[in-house]
């Protein structure tokens, strides 16, 4: 595996909801300081079409996790050269959240208590060496299956059913963490609330179903234009939130204004109708650590001003 260096990436921050994790095949991070044992285990996993990232130490394992690499499952020998399995487990949980990534321990030590201690510390499963290949495969498949179902549920809990964007709940979970990361880097950032103008009128004129098509269209355009670097969510109704992953207010303003123009330009085809919409955007800067609601409230007030000033504009 390649270690990408993007420790502050939004994917890492979103963690278990990382889209890359949920639709690809299973990726196992395999830690074993014994080269022969490691290559044997990797071979067994690869024969099951599991993609394997091999590391010889706990330090390397943590570097992979810190890089934001998609890891579905950790398989580790309990006696790594630089750390015990239980200590590695604690570090994995510190990085990805409690129980977010299953960790399976292996050991060839005669001391059965090592496995028990690992399970007590929260390990997902323990396999004593030597093992039957079928047993190893069965335990891996079991843990990977539970993990995939968990990821599916987490993704559903974080996404908006109509538009498939992140939902308000996820915005409030991931938002404060993203702000904290930006401020820790010493970067200011900004939050925008975007609201479709006169959407009620559009619903009243063309019907709720056409309204839904318009919402889906706007969501799709936004997700392309905003991209993966920033946090985008449907906050409710015809209202969307964008939390920038570090951005000064001038750039954020230019970005929002470009968004506004782009959305106004796009022709939305629904049934036999060709519709256009405009949006108003309130943009607030984030320079100091405050309650997340305060940032959103500030952006909302600018949105309110944009509406009163005649709509189809950005105010910050
Ligand atoms: P303004 O320019 O001031 O924002 O006016 P508006 O009409 O857009 O705002 P208002 O808040 O009065 O109306 C929002 C409308 O959005 C009312 C509601 O029926 C509609 N709406 C909310 N959620 C949905 C949805 O999921 N689908 C559809 N089709 N309409 C929705
Ligand atoms: Mg060993
Ligand atoms: Mg509106
Ligand atoms: Mg609204």
From TrEMBL:
Keywords tagged on the record: Nucleotidyltransferase, Phosphoprotein, Transferase
GO molecular function ontology, one term from the record: diguanylate cyclase activity
Domain GGDEF, chain residue ranges per copy: 187-316
EC number annotated for this UniProt entry: 2.7.7.65
Stretches assigned to the Response regulatory domain: 27-144
Residues that bear 4-aspartylphosphate: 77
Enzyme class: transferase
Catalytic activity: 2 GTP = 3',3'-c-di-GMP + 2 diphosphate
The name this protein goes by in its record: diguanylate cyclase
Organism: Ensifer adhaerens (Sinorhizobium morelense)
């Amino acid at each position: 595996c390649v270690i990408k260096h993007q420790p502050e990436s939004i994917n890492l921050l979103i963690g278990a909801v990382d889209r890359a994790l949920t639709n690809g095949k299973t990726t196992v991070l395999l830690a074993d300081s014994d080269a022969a044992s490691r290559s044997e285990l990797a071979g067994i996993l690869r024969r099951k079409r599991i993609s394997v990232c091999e590391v010889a130490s706990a330090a390397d394992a943590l570097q992979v996790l810190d890089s934001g690499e998609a890891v579905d499952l950790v398989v580790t020998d309990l006696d790594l050269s630089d750390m015990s399995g239980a200590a590695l487990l604690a570090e994995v949980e510190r990085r990805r959240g409690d129980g977010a990534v299953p960790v399976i321990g292996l050991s060839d030590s005669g001391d059965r208590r090592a496995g028990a201690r690992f399970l007590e510390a929260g390990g997902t499963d323990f396999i004593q060496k030597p093992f039957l290949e079928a047993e190893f495969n069965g335990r891996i498949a079991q843990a990977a299956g539970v993990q995939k179902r968990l990821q599916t549920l987490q993704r559903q809990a974080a996404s908006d059913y109509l538009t498939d964007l992140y939902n308000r709940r996820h915005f409030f979970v991931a938002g404060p963490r993203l702000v904290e990361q930006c401020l820790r880097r010493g970067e200011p950032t900004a939050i925008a609330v975007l609201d479709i103008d006169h959407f009620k009128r559009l619903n009243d004129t063309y019907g709720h179903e056409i309204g839904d098509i318009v919402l889906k269209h706007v969501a799709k355009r936004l997700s392309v234009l905003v991209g993966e670097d920033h946090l985008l969510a449907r906050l409710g109704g015809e209202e969307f939130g964008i939390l920038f992953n570090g951005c000064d207010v001038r750039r954020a303003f230019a970005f929002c204004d470009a968004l506004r123009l782009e959305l106004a330009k796009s022709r939305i085809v629904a049934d036999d109708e060709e519709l256009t919409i405009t949006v108003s955007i309130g943009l607030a800067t984030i320079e100091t650590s405050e309650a997340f609601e305060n940032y959103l409230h500030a952006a909302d007030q600018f949105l309110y001003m944009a509406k009163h000033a005649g709509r189809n504009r950005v105010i910050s």
